[in-house]
Design a protein that fits this description.
Elements: H1 7-17, H2 20-27, H3 34-44, E1 63-65, E2 68-70, E3 74-76, H4 82-85, H5 89-100, E4 104-106, H6 114-121, E5 125-129, H7 135-147, E6 152-156, H8 166-171, H9 181-188, H10 191-200, H11 220-227, H12 234-243, E7 248-253, H13 256-264, E8 269-272, H14 286-297, E9 303-305, H15 312-320, E10 325-328, H16 330-339, H17 343-362
Parallel strand pairs: 3-10, 4-5, 5-6, 6-7, 7-8, 8-9, 9-10
Antiparallel strand pairs: 1-2
Helix pairs in contact: 1-16, 5-6, 13-14, 15-17, 16-17
The structure holds flavin mononucleotide (FMN).
């Protein structure tokens, strides 16, 4: 812990160990990265007014959501192309979740099949769906998620169309990666990553392969663009609600009216997120969207939050503003890139310890008291 006490320490080391094209995929936002960076500035602006002289405090951070008690109100957000960022990442993230009793959300475009990742997560797995256009494919994917032991279905709303992601275009990210001089040159400089590829194989969209005919296998990314997304509507949400009998979450909500409608259409939680600033460079900071959504929902369903969390202090900020649970995307991948398979647990430790330390500093024992210690208005 002492060599890498902050997520930024993991980030700096990961940057040196992940090939440049995969690094750009992980850390970039879209456009000029304004929305990504603004998530941070807006979080930094949320401040507390501590109270002291309270004697010994024993902060409690266990959090129950959908009937499951998690060790802390933080989970691993869905990340696509995981195995490109760090070979074998999906298995490592699932094991991190199982070991630490926190949720892990497998992305539709992750690089492991739900049939493998679900059992690996040992009851901690949630499944994220990019809504397929084809009804049969949707039904099949949701059934597979259920059969693989995923407890919670997360449908992502904030990709109505692919974002431009100019920096990723320049980095020419492809899946499976084409093995040309560029890849070989970039990987040669990153021996741990390359050794991982030798061990785990080139990353593939394993969960989607059965829907892709072999002719187009080379460009599964094209298949994803053509078949997933751009379809989500409240009618579509109704269909999902009818099919999935477990907790259903809508991810990527920034507008209070959308949040209320999601609840009216049967969502069990709303996940406030601007996708880590990867979709709309002019989007509101996720933390600025949170308060009005919490107010509009008025406790009807839990509110989940992500985008920009880099410390337990940020989790405390989001909880103080009314979130019930938080997620982080990049930090867990920074952990894997920096330290290999135990790195995601290290990232979790940083976040967990940061939350309890913040609670000590602010002077509260339960997360529900954080709101009263806010120095900034909601
Ligand atoms: C490399 C990368 C890939 C992502 N892929 C997905 C995805 O497949 N599905 C999804 O719903 N969100 C995806 N997201 C968004 C994350 O789930 C999450 O909303 C975001 O990372 C939160 O911001 P943070 O990275 O600052 O924590 C991705 C984010 C990153 C950084």
């Amino acid at each position: 812990m002492d060599s890498y006490p902050a997520i930024s320490d993991l980030e700096a080391r990961a940057k040196k160990r992940i090939p440049s094209f995969a690094w750009v995929y992980l850390e970039s936002g879209t456009g000029d990265d304004v929305a990504r960076d603004h998530n941070r500035t807006a979080l930094d602006a949320v401040r507390f007014r501590p109270q002291f002289l309270k004697g010994p405090l024993a902060p409690s951070i266990e959090t129950t959501l959908f009937g499951v008690t998690y060790a802390a109100p933080i989970g691993i957000a869905p990340v696509g192309l995981t195995g490109l960022i760090w070979p074998g990442a999906d298995a490592m993230l699932a094991q991190t979740a199982a070991r630490n009793t926190i949720p892990y959300v497998l992305s539709t475009v992750g690089t492991e099949a739900p049939e493998v990742a679900g059992p690996n997560a040992q009851g901690m797995g949630w499944f994220q769906l990019y809504p397929p256009r084809d009804d049969d494919m949707r039904t099949d994917m949701v059934d597979r998620a259920k059969a693989s032991g995923f407890t919670t279905l997360v449908v992502t709303a904030d990709v109505p169309a692919p974002s431009r992601r100019e920096r990723q275009r320049k980095a020419q990210i492809r899946v499976p990666p084409s093995i040309g001089p560029r890849l070989i040159a970039a990987s040669a400089l990153r021996p741990s990553w390359s050794a991982g590829i030798v061990r785990h194989g080139l990353p593939r969209f394993r969960g989607l392969e059965q829907y892709v005919d072999s002719a187009s296998m080379k460009n599964t990314a094209g298949f994803v663009g053509a078949n997933l997304g751009g379809t989500l509507s409240f009618e579509y949400l109704d269909a999902l609600r009818n099919q999935w009998d477990g907790p259903l979450v809508v991810k990527g909500i920034l507008d209070p009216d959308d949040a209320v409608q999601c609840r009216d259409h049967g969502a069990d939680a709303v996940w406030v997120s601007n996708h880590g600033g990867r979709q709309l460079d002019g989007a509101i900071a996720s933390i600025d969207a949170l308060g009005p959504i919490v107010d509009a929902l008025d406790g009807a369903v839990p509110v989940l939050f992500d985008s920009g969390i880099r410390d337990g202090l940020d989790i405390a900020r989001a909880l103080a503003l009314g979130a019930d649970f938080c997620f982080a995307g990049r930090p867990f991948l920074f952990g894997l890139g920096a330290l290999g398979e135990n790195g995601a647990s290290h990232a979790y430790e940083i976040l967990r310890e940061g939350l309890t330390t913040t609670m000590h500093q602010v002077g509260v024992e339960s997360v529900s008291e954080l709101e009263r210690r806010l120095a900034t208005s909601r």
